[in-house]
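Readers outside the structure-tokenisation community will struggle with the description of the input data as it stands. What matters is that the chain and its backbone geometry are given together, residue for residue. For illustration, here is how one protein appears when written out as sequence plus structure tokens:

…
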Amino acid sequence: MNNMPKEKIGVVAVSRDCFPMELSVSRREAVIKAYQEKYGDIYECPVCVENEIHMREALADLKEAGCNALAVYLGNFGPETPETLLVKEFDGPAMVVAAAEERGDNLIQGRGDAYCGMLNASYNLKLRSLKAYIPEYPVGTAFECADMIHEFAPIARAILGLRNLKIISFGPRPENFLACNAPIQQLYNLGVEIEENSELDLYEAFHKHAGDKRIPAVVAEMETELGAGNKKPEILAKLAQYEITLTDWVEAHKGSRAYVAIAGKCWPAFQTQFGFVPCYVNSRLTQRGIPVSCEVDIYGALSEFIGTVVSQDAVTLLDINNSVPADMYESEIKGKYGYTLKDTFMGFHCGNTPSPKLSFCEMKYQLIMARSLPEEVTQGTLEGDIVPGDITFYRLQSTSDARLRAYIAQGEVLPVATRSFGAIGVFAIPEMGRFYRHVLLEKNYPHHGAVAFGHFGKALYEVFKYLGVPVDEIGFNQPKGMRYPTENPFC
């Protein structure tokens, strides 16, 4: 996957002038050693910051070393002004972490008071309206601080990625499809660029790629990937032509940005004019780290990109689609997996999920579209049951009045055959019924949700906080006994 940043975290120790600098330096060295033993390489800035001159020296050193993320380490109480100016002037995401005291027999010359210093650091960050990641409990031993810095890595990647992301969209949303409303003001607030194009632009570019000499090689890749699931070989050349069109467009249009996501059009006129549906191509690009959302879902593409960068793995975008039939629940879920019927639902989309995330896959036609169109123009979906395992269902969204809002829910895909069509899975999320009513419905979310394959709720929550989503606007599947504000207390 080559469409995401690689973070390089620099650790800078700070020291208040009435505390021994040697204490911060030795503690920093212990954190670096602990990190390298457990996680590998990390950059240790040799400058210990005690004043504003040191702060500038540290910044210059970090820049020369190529660091794009910063961990400010309070080895002792720390200097309020220099340490917060370090965060302010560093061009990248930052975190603040502090040293715990080490031994009960060394609390005179060896006491650092970083527990207190963190309070002043956070106060000064607020005074300067600065953002920095502060872990849940930010005071720890060398090994605990190393763990905290490692947890900062995916958060840093996401922030770096969004600052250098362009979302390319094609066409307006389909008619009678207001659900994926996408006010662009918040994209700019997040540092994301948006390029909105006409379907005619894409159509013209597609036809210019007719007979492209690269098409046979892409077809061969598709044949290898699909294997026995290659049920529509006659459509592969067109799909390959479309894939080359998109990848060439990305290279020609990303401009000053390093990373790209695509919000694509797929109906109603796409099938009749292009002669296929783009689902399989979307899945292939997403697998390579270029998320492609369906139905011009701009915030869906944004959400997919965040999940890709956090998880360093392919994601997918699914409809929160249909309930699990009661008889299916009784025969295949109840008593086996510990979920109620209301905890379960099916996540579905036509065929945009990457093949490694499917238990099996076949190239087919899009059944829903084929109900009103000739079947031959609806070919191009990748169908199969989604692989069982842990998932995180999430979305970052701008409301119609341009306020940021998000949700995160961890759960799993059950190893239960769906007996249905499309790229689809039986999902189970604890207390999904209440979450569905009091977050998804109450907060007016669209039906599309991004799916990361694994539990990444902790990192995603911190990313959304760092981006400025108010904490009361980050919904999650609250456990029993934790009432939603809109939940009827008499139910």
